[in-house]
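Attaching the record inline, Q. Sequence:
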Amino acid sequence: MSRPAERRPELDRAAMTDVLAELFSEQIPVYRKVLANIAAERGLPRTDPPWPNGTSPIDGPSLTDPDLRVAIVHSFQGAGDLGSFRTSLDPVCLRIHVQGYSSQFPDRHSARSNLLDEVSEAEGEAWARALLGKYWSDYAYELSWHRHVSDRVRARMWDKQRIYVLLLAPNGTPLLAPDTFAWSRVWHAIEHARKLDPDPSSNELLSCIERFGPYAVTAGIRDPNTEPDGGWRVEMTGESLEALTETARETLRHLRNQVRVRGVVDSAFRPVRIHVQDHSVVVYFHWAKNPNTFALLVPMPQSPGDFRGPPVDTPRRYASEALFRWQEDLRTGLLVWGTRTRIGKTIHVSTPRMDHERCEFGIGPVPMHEKSGVWLADAGLSIETPRASMDSGTLAAWIQAYVNNKYAKPFVGHAAARWLDQTTACIDVLEVVQGTESVVTGQLAHIITHTLANMGARLIGTPFDGESFAGLGYEQRPTIGGMQLDVTTMP
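Structure, as predicted:
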């Protein structure tokens, strides 16, 4: 990150990069493989880095200050919601933290939170470049603090380091940040980023940057549902702003600004309209690939006295708290377990009074691997049909039911569906262990129907018949038997 005046190093940045690359020649390839695996596995590495927890394999004396040691650590987040990318990319945002600490400590782990804001721009970049190598370094950026960051924030550990950002596609290809990239969401109190200079031999990239600047132009690939700034396009309807109290107007402004941020609730959440009515706001949105439109209501405070107190004591915090609550509820299945009321083409969802009795049975996805479902067969269930769908590449969903205890066993049932075409699915497995309560059959039918809807199914058919399906909106198929559901009419 950009710092004030610094010591003059005896070596220039390029020379320091070469020295560090030689010094850590054994550790760097291992570290790069860890970073590549993070990108390949969408930011969810299955194994820990091959070095002790809390330590770094790249940790040593500063090349410019005898009283300073430097270490590199990393962190990451999904980048898909931070800017406009081609839909096939699904990149990860890697953060390379170059951290300085006193040479009185033997290593970074011993220094704990005692970091020093002493790593120069040239040396910090050299450490980052040594790790990333020429190809990745060509596409890297250094984060810069907001100019008006408070002394309180500057005193904290997260400011006392230099942070470099690299966007990687799953195959390890580095990417320029899009011109809609939200740098402020990458780290605390960040205003923008500085593009590292590409290697002089990278002619194609240098030519691209000279022509278009340090960011990828997204005008041709931007999601049509977004504005030029990368935020969601949201229609405003209902009462005019002039009719609102100052508190309600400010709350609405913050709610709109926050709800437009991609991924602020969830990557599956896309707002389309905000409707102002009688001391409340209704937010209309789409979820994942579900063809339905959903709506959530937010009561609007009319005066400062309507806030319940810290930390929810301002319009901005009130809006933030509402979105945080939606995030938790939607990610835990509000659209499935919430109270749903269809009005026209919209399903209005609210939180029901919670039944605090523990559910006797749980439902979850069947893990996908070469032995998927073997444990279900051991319980006496037939897995031939879903396994055949797996082999043919048509499996849409496969879920399992189990006794809700700390072992999540025994397994008592399962359901599976396959794709007939891109928007039509068939639930051809619904089976429970003999003697299992009928409620499990209903739970399996309920969950797999909603799962398919969220995956984009518009029509769901099944050879099965019963109240469990009828309650979900399925109708009889007199000519061929069984039932089917038009997802856009389901309750």
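Residues 1-8 have pLDDT under 50 and may be disordered. The chain has three domains: 13-212, 235-350, 361-489.

More tomorrow.
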